[in-house]
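Lab manual, section 2.4: Encoding a predicted structure.

Procedure: take the sequence of the chain (222 residues), apply the prediction step described in section 2.3, and record the output as structure tokens. A sample record is shown.
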Amino acid sequence: MKKKKLKILYEDKDILIVDKPAKLLTVSTSKEKYKTLFHQVFEYVKSKNKHNKVFIVHRLDKDTSGIVVFAKSEDIKYKLQNNWNNIVRTRRYVAIVEGKVVKSGKIVSYLKETKTLLTYSTKDKKNGKKAITLYNPIKNCGKYSLLEIDILTGRKNQIRVHMKDMNHPIIGDKKYGAQTNPIGRLGLHATVLEFYHPRTNELLKVTSNIPKDFEKIIDLPF
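Recorded output:
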């Protein structure tokens, strides 16, 4: 199998931002050590200079595609991670969901995880982590809708759970109630990240195009 080239969206001496394809782990697991985005990035920075280092700042689910940020030093990694909610202005995704969504909205709940690692919403403030999701329908196409989604908090599986809560699960997301899988993957893509650079404090905006496989379902451009 031909190795896919790393798609770099932004790079400077402190940060490397890449476009993760679907069906690729962000980091290794006990079962898979090398077929990961981190390993690809590691090989890339080492090819530039064998002394270079790289650190993961955040991650996406295996089936989710889009923007992932890496730091080139431990100092920058911690500056990003420890101040993530303060320095990030926009975290935007696009998702194809089942059913017709016609109005914009806001979902607020408290997320908790079961022993089987399934995340669910609760209204009990003391029993979960607050999660806030904004959604806006961009286009309806048959039995599916393309949504633009901004998250104001970054909880595990937040978007997936909130789409399930509104009875419009993301396509391909059997774990959270989807009945269909028309593109053979989760229909979720991290498309915009806007944040203040941890060293320069400059506002940096990185974008990733809507994936080609989404076009099989939603007629683009729109």
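Check your result against the sample. The mean pLDDT is 91.
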